[in-house]
Specification:
The protein is of the alpha/beta class. It is built from seven helices and eight strands; from the N terminus they run βαβαααβαβββαβαβ. About 25% of the residues lie in helices and about 20% in strands. Strands 1-8-7-2-3-5-4-6 form an eight-stranded mixed β-sheet.
Length: about 240
């Protein structure tokens, strides 16, 4: 379990309270807040009005490193991941453009990537958006994965911000390390992500009652994090 060390900081620890009301978020009445919606991510995004979302977590469903390394027999630990519907680069670009549209100015996108995309770059995904990479967090998963040479033990979380780019008064939690160790003990989804990390990031860049989006929710770990931080969750999945 990650230990957070509280320290004094010269940075601002104040954020403005949310001014977005529930009845202005959607252009449709069929999306539930703080619940699980069975819907594909693009359809969900299309139902959200411009500039309403403070944070979006996005974990694209791609094979990435598995296709790059051509493992073939991926073993029982990768079967669930391999069976998921995979996204093309063009589909990921559509997602990110829509996420850019619904984020508030200076809002954040937390984008999960693997080692292959970290090395090759994802800048083309963000073409024609107002999003810029502002940070990177390494998630140490606490268990060994695949690899021909080094064995993979981590995933990477790119931090992107919508213009105007600024930290003061927006990112208010300054005790988070850029390498985060958190092990998942009861895995219920191939792409399950660390709740404690997501909870801390939500607290860092949003206020109570702000809207947090996860268009490909998977295990709904972001919903769990939102419940514990009094944020409003919007998310769904096709399963």
């Amino acid at each position: 379990m990650q230990t957070i060390i509280e320290k004094r900081t010269v940075f601002s620890n104040n954020r403005k309270a949310s001014t977005v009301s529930d009845d202005t978020v959607f252009n449709s009445q069929d999306i539930l807040i703080n619940d699980r919606n069975k819907i594909d991510g693009i359809s969900l995004l299309e139902k959200i009005n411009n500039n309403k979302i403070t944070i979006c977590f996005f974990d694209p469903q791609y094979r990435g490193i598995m296709d790059k390394m051509q493992y073939g027999n991926e073993g029982k630990r990768q079967i669930g991941r391999a069976e998921l519907t995979q996204m093309s680069n063009e589909m990921i670009k559509i997602f990110i453009k829509e996420i850019d549209r619904v984020l508030i100015p200076s809002g954040h996108l937390f984008l999960w990537i693997d080692k292959f995309h970290l090395c090759e770059g994802i800048s083309s995904w963000c073409n024609d958006t107002s999003l810029s990479i502002v940070d990177l967090i390494v998630w140490d998963k606490g268990k060994i994965g695949m690899g021909y040479r080094t064995r993979r033990k981590s995933e990477y979380l790119l931090v992107l911000q919508k213009k105007p780019i600024r930290a003061k008064g927006v990112w208010i939690k300054h005790n988070l390390p850029d390498v985060w160790d958190e092990k998942i003990f009861s895995k219920i989804h191939p792409h399950q992500k660390p709740v404690l990390l997501q909870r801390n990031l939500i607290e860092a860049v949003s206020s109570i009652n702000d809207f947090v989006l996860d268009p490909c929710a998977g295990s709904y770990s972001v919903l769990t994090a939102c419940k514990s931080t009094e944020r409003n969750f919007i998310g769904g999945d096709i399963q």
